[in-house]
Amino acid sequence: MATLFQGVGAVTPFSASSSLDSNKLLLPSRKSLSISDSRGSIFVYRSDALNLKAATRKQDLLIPNAVATKGETSTSAKSGHELLLFEALHEGLEEEMERDPRVCVMGEDVGHYGGSYKVTKGLAEKYGDLRVLDTPIAENSFTGMGIGAAMTGLRPIVEGMNMGFLLLAFNQISNNCGMLHYTSGGQFTIPIVIRGPGGVGRQLGAEHSQRLESYFQSIPGIQMVACSTPYNAKGLMKAAIRSENPVILFEHVLLYNLKERIPDEEYVLSLEEAEMVRPGEHITILTYSRMRYHVMQAAKTLVNKGYDPEVIDIRSLKPFDLYTIGCSVKKTHRVLIVEECMRTGGIGASLTAAITENFHDYLDAPIVCLSSQDVPTPYAGTLEEWTVVQPAQIVSAVEQLCQ
Amino acid sequence: MALSRIASSTHASNLLKPLSAALSIRRVISSDSTDPLTIETSLPFISHKCDAPPRAVDTSASELFSFFRDMATMRRMEIAADSLYKAKLIRGFCHLYDGQEAVAIGMEAAITKKDAIITAYRDHCIFIGRGGTLLEVFGELMGRICGGSKGKGGSMHFYRKQTNFFGGHGIVGAQIPLGCGLAFAQRYSKEENVTFTLYGDGAANQGQLFEALNMAALWDLPAILVCENNHYGMGTAEWRAAKNPAYYKRGDYVPGLKVDGMDVLAVKQACKFAKEHALKNGPLILEMDTYRYHGHSMSDPGSTYRTRDEISGVRQERDPIERVRKLLLAHDIASEKELKDIEKQVRKDVDDAIAKAKECPMPDPSELFTNVYVKGLGVESFGADRKEVRATLP
Q1: What is the mean pLDDT of residues A96-111?
Q2: Is A159 a catalytic residue?
Q3: Bond from prior residue into B53 cis (ω within 30 degrees of 0)
Q4: What residue of A is the nearest CA neighbor of B153?
């Protein structure tokens, strides 16, 4: 798994020396990683220097066994805490707001209401109405406001209640957010985070089921990441807030109630790295966001049928983590892209082009890209199911590719 | 440079003293005097939902002198940009500010460099007002690395972070929410500064203006929205674009003030009043009644939608520089010759800057990829052979 623990501040020398070689990380379970024997390569750091010594001492006490034996009363097997994805986002957000007084949130119903998906619940009571700002329904203007505030050094997080509404703010995101650092010759940085849920939900209708990653992907100057698990949601949220570049964080409406155990310690993930979900030998399946779960479901069927798919959650939609992807293509020689974007001009289309340009020699078969149909998402449940890629289609695509 | 010029003029005035005494014209005030001088604005202020400030403006001889010099510099710079554009050294869009200099200068006189200004694409003179140099202006216009944005922005993208000038925006009206964001940041950090958000009569019909105004009024942000009404939105006269061209009233619940934008003292008074108001009571709209002599941009002759008589009429009756010149002469702060000398000096400065900018090189091709992202989190266009996987966090 190519996830990365990174330290804060003074840890820089450590993280530079340790190299989490992707070859070493063929550990299928993340639980074992948190107590892994590669002691030198994991650095979990407390945010304040006072706990520095405590943290290092705790590390020395970590149990080096990769497998937790039964009957052990150690905290290692049960380390971390369980929560839902929206709670993970909330935790990441709160930790960052605690850490840096310049971090503020603005969006519709984020304050008193607690956020339409409860990501900002309780924050307004804790930090005040100015820091967790309830805006009127004016996406263009409050996104512009966030960008203006970011130009002066504040670190706003703009929440779109649904990603689709951010189309109204496209001008601000494209022209001001993405380009100001360049057109000012480097004078201004825009450390803004624009986040919100998108994707096809449960019969939400065409306008509320949009996937904007395809529209935003060609804006120069912004970064795009898509979270898919509580673990990477918290890590990516924190990384996005700390980044000096404008970051668009894509969440998915249907993934907010995913439950997972995440570490207690503070961790931040890298914004430009992909996640190795399941290493394999026969075929590389690239996916992100909700489609990861469809792919994993298909993977179970495929394993039963004797295939060994390598599943990579690309996470970083702009720029692509071509290193991880390239290493995988080199190994398997076959690529299947499974995405929720539309076929035309989607992330899959760009990824196909990038892989073909860079790794053409390693490919044994043409790249297959499974994406949603180029239709407005219908309301009827059965039709909606047909617009998105289903596990059965993934299985048949893999079978065809691996002939 | 400024002080030496004032010193030289006092030298000249000392020499002229016996002469002027002989001609029975007594020099009332010397041009470097900072004694307060009170001058009335030529037109009264018209207000909407607030009390208009008084017409008597406090100024001084040295301030009036600096107004003249700065406005002459701006005027000369814009005319020079016109010739450079026609010589194809400046390409693309070039929106000139001549005729509107009083707004830039009057605003600067009323505020500090800690207050923020953000404007649209007619930004060359505001950049100068905020401390930009002529070399940076011409360098940027000609796309050289000595330009304010290293040649990567162009005419519509002047910024100056250290003096809180936030640009320089090409899309009409998009800078207004940004300006509200600046005011929000000022309120957030509890600084006693204000933001002047400039827009034109064309942008006054944009929805984002009213959205931003609503938010600014809702949260009492120290934002002052200044409509530089030059009566034409490119080729469309204001009465053809707006049902209600009284832009200072269109804030409805937000107070407004209509100001003669060709009178630098009126602009100064209005901006001073606006700053005090915004710090206490929230946003305010200032409508500056001004005029541009050039067309909308260099590709617009400016005469298809208005008559040449109109343009020359405004130039004769309301020109901001002429107004200050008359004031300086009437109060005997400077003589005709001194003012002509200043204009000559300004012309020379501008020519020198242009010559220096012409010698400046174009940006290196590698500059194409710089400043797209901020370094520090390892963000670059990744290739397949990227060896570095890690990025170090700040």
Answers
A1: 95
A2: no
A3: no
A4: A183
